[in-house]
Amino acid sequence: MGLGGSWDNAAYGAAEIDQAAAVIESARGIGIGLFDHADIYRSGKSEAVFGEVLVRSQGLREKIQLQTKCGIRLGERGLQTHYDLSREAILERVNESLKRLQTDYVDVLLLHRPDPLMDAREVADAVGQLMAEGKVRQLGVSNMSGAQIAYLQDRLETPVVANQLEMSLLKRDWLESTVLVNHPEGAATSFPHGTLEYCMDKGIELQAYGSLAQGRYTGAGARTSADEATSAMLERLAAEKHTTAEAVLLGWLMKHPARISPVVGTTNLSRIGACADAADVAAQMSRSEWYGLWMAARGSNIP
């Protein structure tokens, strides 16, 4: 999302292409091989600069996986934002993304947001056509509940392989909804109950955007007392495990049995590098450390 320059229609230049190349190299250097896009990011320029790097880096496309999203429309038809998962829109947007990325296919296509006017049969028809043409290899969703995925899956001929949601130590509704059943605090939790369980049961990968909590625990800025306590605990654990606070933060997510894959959204090369040990941290983290971070972030004990 951070690649490509501004969010307006101003043209990108060599500096933006060089930045994309550096980010890709840094990410691959710590073992990241899947790159997440969306047709709306930076008004399409995020995909475009990535495509420029693919063209100038022979053989790179075959070494990585590409994922993009469609379904959100910005500043069109007199509306600031609306959603569109019609057959025509899916086909149009995917073809435009492929052109910008300068590739023949994406490994995964995500439906970016639920569209209240969606006809699941149209989605199935569009996805089927794209797969038959070799333009899309797998299908996922983003920001959908378990019930919405189940409704869609009943009409698809291909399995939904991923669900991308905002999940982090800061944004914990996905977690707290599972323990606040029959508890007064549960009324304030908006995350649709059962979504994690549905994805776990069906083998659907959960991709966590916002996984670094926008630097809330690992950077400067205004913080609450709970933030300070969480930051201190992250630093202590990082020192004990000879790694970084970022790796501990992501390791906490990856410790959960729901197949959570953090989406590292930063374009800061040092922060990308700081995430390198996340999988090792997840494997080493104790139950008490995991619960301790959760309670620190809450600013209270769990019910």
Fold topology:
Elements: H1 14-29, E1 34-36, H2 45-56, E2 65-70, E3 72-76, E4 79-83, H3 87-101, E5 106-111, H4 120-132, E6 136-142, H5 146-153, E7 160-166, H6 173-176, H7 195-202, E8 205-209, H8 225-240, H9 245-255, E9 260-262, H10 269-274, H11 278-284, H12 287-298
Parallel strand pairs: 1-2, 2-5, 5-6, 6-7, 7-8, 8-9
Antiparallel strand pairs: 3-4
Summarize the structure.
It is built from twelve helices and nine strands.
Describe this structure in words.
The chain has 303 residues and is α/β, with parallel strands linked by helices. It is 42% helix and 16% strand. It has twelve helices and nine strands. The chain has helices at residues 14-29, 45-56, 87-101, 120-132, 146-153, 173-176, 195-202, 225-240, 245-255, 269-274, 278-284, 287-298, and strands at 34-36, 65-70, 72-76, 79-83, 106-111, 136-142, 160-166, 205-209, 260-262. It has a seven-stranded parallel β-sheet with strand order 1-2-5-6-7-8-9. Strands 3-4 form a two-stranded antiparallel ribbon. Strand 1, helix 2 (45-56) and strand 2 form a beta-alpha-beta unit. Helix 8 (225-240) runs antiparallel to helix 12 (287-298). It is globular.
